[in-house]
């Protein structure tokens, strides 16, 4: 009987977490899929041509990538291991996730004030070889916000609840992880 109650409670919690408007839809991670595809193309090119340099330049026009933080950070750490530099030209609102990507991969994050000057910004900050990095002065703002973003509200948090499986951060306690659907076991030790 206790098992039936626990199972029904679990199913109810799962349904409520699936129906929640705050739960990110994993199937809509188009931005991270595009970056991962670019990463794969660079890896294939490097293998076919015995090395070479890899670089991903992201022009962000205000798309909020905070909901895709987990998958993007995995991609950026993999890019760092493969010596692929990620640079970001930000035309819209600044993105802490993309700032972190540039910091992790030794790329440049720069704000484009006038979209008509985008080519000039790209030429000076992102499209040169790694040997010429020291010639061009770096972007002025070098501070990077490394606070985790809550998966339910996409807001930075200093202290939160972290899922032990998918490492998603929540601002409030939830007995079932909304990202990977892990049910936290509190009663068995």
Automatic annotation (TrEMBL):
<keyword id="KW-0862">Zinc</keyword>
<keyword id="KW-0804">Transcription</keyword>
<dbReference type="Pfam" id="PF03850">
    <property type="entry name" value="Tfb4"/>
</dbReference>
<dbReference type="GO" id="GO:0006289">
    <property type="term" value="P:nucleotide-excision repair"/>
</dbReference>
<dbReference type="GO" id="GO:0000439">
    <property type="term" value="C:transcription factor TFIIH core complex"/>
</dbReference>
<keyword id="KW-0479">Metal-binding</keyword>
<dbReference type="GO" id="GO:0005675">
    <property type="term" value="C:transcription factor TFIIH holo complex"/>
</dbReference>
<dbReference type="GO" id="GO:0008270">
    <property type="term" value="F:zinc ion binding"/>
</dbReference>
<keyword id="KW-0227">DNA damage</keyword>
<keyword id="KW-0863">Zinc-finger</keyword>
<dbReference type="InterPro" id="IPR036465">
    <property type="entry name" value="vWFA_dom_sf"/>
</dbReference>
<keyword id="KW-0805">Transcription regulation</keyword>
<comment type="similarity">
    <text>Belongs to the TFB4 family.</text>
</comment>
<keyword id="KW-0234">DNA repair</keyword>
<comment type="subunit">
    <text>Part of a TFIID-containing RNA polymerase II pre-initiation complex that is composed of TBP and at least GTF2A1, GTF2A2, GTF2E1, GTF2E2, GTF2F1, GTF2H2, GTF2H3, GTF2H4, GTF2H5, GTF2B, TCEA1, ERCC2, ERCC3, TAF1, TAF2, TAF3, TAF4, TAF5, TAF6, TAF7, TAF8, TAF9, TAF10, TAF11, TAF12 and TAF13. Component of the 7-subunit TFIIH core complex composed of XPB/ERCC3, XPD/ERCC2, GTF2H1, GTF2H2, GTF2H3, GTF2H4 and GTF2H5, which is active in NER.</text>
</comment>
<dbReference type="InterPro" id="IPR004600">
    <property type="entry name" value="TFIIH_Tfb4/GTF2H3"/>
</dbReference>
<dbReference type="GO" id="GO:0006355">
    <property type="term" value="P:regulation of DNA-templated transcription"/>
</dbReference>
<keyword id="KW-0539">Nucleus</keyword>
<comment type="function">
    <text>Component of the general transcription and DNA repair factor IIH (TFIIH) core complex, which is involved in general and transcription-coupled nucleotide excision repair (NER) of damaged DNA and, when complexed to CAK, in RNA transcription by RNA polymerase II. In NER, TFIIH acts by opening DNA around the lesion to allow the excision of the damaged oligonucleotide and its replacement by a new DNA fragment. In transcription, TFIIH has an essential role in transcription initiation.</text>
</comment>
<protein>
    <recommendedName>
        <fullName>General transcription factor IIH subunit 3</fullName>
    </recommendedName>
</protein>
């Amino acid at each position: 009987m206790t098992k039936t109650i626990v199972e029904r409670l679990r199913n109810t919690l799962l349904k409520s977490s699936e129906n929640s408007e705050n739960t990110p839809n994993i199937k809509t991670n188009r931005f991270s899929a595009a970056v991962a595809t670019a990463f794969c193309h660079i890896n294939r090119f490097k293998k076919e041509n015995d090395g070479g340099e890899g670089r991903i330049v992201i022009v962000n026009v205000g798309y909020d990538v905070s909901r895709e933080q987990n998958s993007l950070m995995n991609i950026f750490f993999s890019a760092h291991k493969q010596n692929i530099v990620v640079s970001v030209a930000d035309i819209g609102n600044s993105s802490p996730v993309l700032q972190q990507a540039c910091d992790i991969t030794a790329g440049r994050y720069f704000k484009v004030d006038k979209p008509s000057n985008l080519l000039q910004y790209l030429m000076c900050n992102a499209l040169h070889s790694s040997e010429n990095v020291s010639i061009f002065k770096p972007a002025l703002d070098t501070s990077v916000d490394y606070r985790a973003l809550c998966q339910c509200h996409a807001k930075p948090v200093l202290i939160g609840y972290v899922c032990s499986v998918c490492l998603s951060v929540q601002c409030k306690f939830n007995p079932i992880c909304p990202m990977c659907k892990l049910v936290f076991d509190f009663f068995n030790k």
